[in-house]
Amino acid sequence: MIAMILAAGRGERLRPLSDDLPKALVEVRGESLLERHLRAVKVAGVETVVINLGWLGDQIVERIGSGADFGLNVIYSPEGDDILETGGGIHRALPMLGKAPFIVINADIFTDMPLQITMLNDNDVGHLLLVPTPDHKSSGDFDFTDGRVRNGDNANFTFSGVATYRSEFFAKCTPGRFPLAPMLRAAADAGTLGGSVYAGLWRDVGTPERLAELNS
To answer: Mean of the per-residue pLDDT values for the chain?
Structure first.
């Protein structure tokens, strides 16, 4: 299985730290978020990782290189100054991700969640890892019932930024910039999103305050 780490974003909420550093290279407890994710996917049995690049992406290439230091084969999907958002970034990388289901990880999360290679049900386009909604959010993203990810008015769970998708989920998308969230909403309505819940350590490292809390 191939993994993709989404690392192209500008990291606006982390400014001024992210003015000179890509958010994927922000350090928590002495290690960058990106390097932590690379070690996690290696433990899960992944051999090839695609990393999309945008803001200050050259720093990521300089730090990670070929991925050999992690026992991985790292391939880069540069987006330049035209960041494609989550959906567009995954769609652009499809030729590198192959035909089999692949893992996608948001670079700007910190977790001790053990990554697993998830087998998708025949009719599912993806499998989302959900977490209990953290205090800093006013509402959750999804409901979770009988192993299915659903939309709901009183959603109790937040999408962790870790998921497994089929390539077919993106095959009919138009190249360019587009978000992933509407696609997930539609799949949840269609009943084609599996899921599971992780109740352990998980943080969205989205602000200097949350970063400082993790490093305290």
So the answer is: 93
- φ/ψ of residue 92, rounded to 5: -65, -35
How many C-alpha atoms does 69 have within 13 Å on its Cβ side?
Answer: 8
At residue 15, the pLDDT reads 85
Among 30, 38, 35, 29, which residue's Cα sits nearest to residue 4?
38
CB-based contact 162:114 (threshold 8 Å) = no
List, for residues 123-154, the tens digit of each pLDDT value: 999 999 999 998 888 789 999 999 999 998 88
- Residue that is written with structure tokens 């030729």 in the block: 95
The dihedral formed by the CA atoms of 139, 206, 61 and 165, expressed in degrees to the nearest 10: -10
CA 39 – CA 121 distance, rounded (Å): 27
Q: From CA 43, how far away is CA 165, in angstroms rounded?
A: 20
Ordered structural domains, the chain, with CATH: 2-214 (3.90.550.10)
DSSP assignment of 58-79 equals HHHHHHHTTSGGGT-EEEEEE-
